Give the backbone structure.
Amino acid sequence: MSTLKMPRVDRQTLKNKDKIMKDISVFTNKQNILSEKEELKPYETDGLSAYKQTPMLVVLPETTKEVSRILSYCNKNKIKVVPRGAGTGLAGSALPLADCILLGLGKFNKIKEIDFANRCVVAQPGVTNLGITHAVQHKGFYYAPDPSSQMACSIGGNVAENSGGVHSLKYGTTTNNILGIEVVFMDGTITRIGGKTFDSPGYDFLGLITGSEGLLCVITEVTVKILKKPDTVKAMLLGFPSIEDAGNSVMKIISNGVIPAGMEIMDKVLLEATNNFSKAGYPLEAEAMLIVELDGTKSEVEELIKKVAEICKQNKCSSVKISKSDEERSKFWSGRKAAFPACGEMAPDYYCVDGTIPRSKLAKVLREITKLSKKYKLPVANAFHAGDGNLHPIIMFDANDESSLQRTEKFGEDILKLCVKFGGVLSGEHGIGIEKRELMCEMFNNNDIQQQINIKSSLDPSSLLNPGKVYPILRKCAEEGRLHIHGRDKSKFSDIPRF
Amino acid sequence: MEEINQNSQTSQDFNAEILEPKEEVEIQQFIKHCFKKNLPIEIVGNKTKQSIGKKLQCAKTLSMSQFSGIIDYKPEELYITVKAGTPLKTIQDKLKENNQHLAFEPTNFSQIFKTNSNEGTIGGTLSCNFSGARRFKVGSARDHILGFKGFNGKGEKIKSGGTVVKNVTGYDISKLVTGSFGTLLVLTELTLKVLPLESETQTIIVSGLALEHGLAVMGSAISSSNDPSGAIFYPSNFRKEFVFNDLTHKGSITAIRVEGTKISVTQRVENLINDLVLKDKNLTILDNIQSEIFWQDTRALKVFAKKEENILRAVVPPSETLNLLNRIKTFHPNYFLDWGGSLIWIGIDYLSSQKIEQLRQRILDANGYLTVIKSPISIKSSSETFTIDPIKFKISQNIKKSFDPKRIFNPGKMYTGI
């Protein structure tokens, strides 16, 4: 465990562990309460696996009522609760606390209703993202947001982190694709927000809760919008002599009124790494490659392909390949999707950064990243959801080498600062969690953060639900949003390994 | 927060009932002044939607109509940043220069509230979050706000979001503020997502369908891969409101809009006619120009413009629409359907608080919600505009308090006590 500062451990709670277990066994089946060391082990980390913390207890409730009674009990007894979906999150939002009850929603794994008439699916939060599409694809429907972990990540976690994917430019992120949720607040109050209609009346709690990283309530049911699959989907692989040319093409495609379903840029390092790994047939002579996916009717897709190819040619595109079948299209994507394991082949460890920048700043930011790569003497491969400006540099390092680890950590931090400097944000789709918590002052000043904390306090006055996440503990945000951390504080922050 | 020297930075007199600021600092000072003195403020833009919600009697009015202007527009980045008092039309005209638009088609209340062609300000549009026919395809206003700046009830400057679409950096307050009717913040700057205007629009009109059949056609169209961007049903009593050269058939109107490139639209229109077995029906295809008029009229609730005194807005899952309309027959509603049947615009000749509550209950039974858009002043104080349950009322109170602890912003506009 690193020296990351977390909320103060309540020794009294730890002392009362046996009593708490006994009390909770009134609310849920005894088998749903895990307390032995080896039982707790699998829950000690999430997708940000360098952070580990064994929780006091793991509770795996089976019904909303159980969740409500557990939360109400914890609220009264001032016991911290950390909700967890599938544990695939990359920002440490589900990292346990030593004195917490880790509330695993894994047993909420059923699809409750498929409603084609209203084009929606009602699912329990533990259902996987892909599980929803699988449940409706026999009628040609699908759920649009597709984070790369979609086979494993849960829909409840998707709501908590407002997950995106490669198709966000055209189809939006989770927040644009859900209709309703059932939630339980820390005091045990159960309520439904939205339902099977658009735009629920009153304040947009659905919007507030989506992306709130488990700090405001526990999600116990999700109603998602489903879409009919487009008639035709084709992907193009476009090689470019420079990353600038690829970036310019993206800008030109959009300013010409084309909104592709997906647009990804990969740099040469990643191109070679992934092609070796998955034999996707990428243009290896190119310095950068753009994958453009277009969907719609057959004639529309053909028309758009011509238009995109023309725009890219005007921007020095050196090669064009168009998928001839769905199999070939999948192959085009297979390399991109293998970015992590491919980098894993090249170095003992890798760390994926997530930030968003305005599209026009792509080339500039990538040039800066190259400079930083030299400065920190660490190789980096760049994958980029170019359509929506979401950057995913993958830093390769060796965790056994203390200096390499420290440099990686600084490198990641510098990239995120660059994102903010160029008008972007700290996280596009992974969330803040503990990973970027102290960087929030890069974007927000004290007022901004205090307002957000006030919202949290209005729903969870004792700050028991997922405390220590998202908002900086070492808060010293200046008025206009720059981070002012000096001296000892700085050294504390530098100790955060963000992998 | 630092104290701002009132005299040196503003010429506004805070003793006046109405403040029309041009500078941000005036807004901040005014709010701080009102916070200190416990003075409630009615926040208005161009007052085009002022009649929606409870009637306010506030000591002060903050008119944002002079706080206007485009701050930053990056067509290739698909965003525009504007001051909150910027007229919607100014924004729409600017975007049109680059073949772009606000895709959520905000409802145009100017005809029913007789504000002529004035559609109000962007701040008002976002604060009300009433979105048009493309809702099921592109989302509503809340899906198009990327970030904002504004002042909370203590006069503290707050910002959230940014200029990019993908953003999970703290709570998404932009969405919370959208549709909050000015009860949480005074918005000063808004950044909105913009999208390309489609080059071709065609509208398939099927005339004379019974309601049930019209609903089925709309449902099938939206559930197809032909990607329509509007699905509306007007019963036959509204037929006379639509005069188009190409529309010669009588009876109800079931309209499906298809937008895109010409080649794509032509193909999708053909697919829809085949897939929905419409060939033998009374079909009309409206071209670009006629389509534009038809959908502008729909967005402006034209069918209610002439006489309806009372207008209600019900939203239910599309599968409930038919049953609900049967259950409210005794109220003799004039209605038309948007969002493929999910949004029911209702005009009613005579309306009482009791009637509103009876309708509200039937709509709640259908898993939907009711918003009163236009009602007699005499019943405004005794009836609720919005639908809310006790739990969400309590949560809303807490949220309100976190932004506006003294309840000085539009107090009671949405709900009594908030």
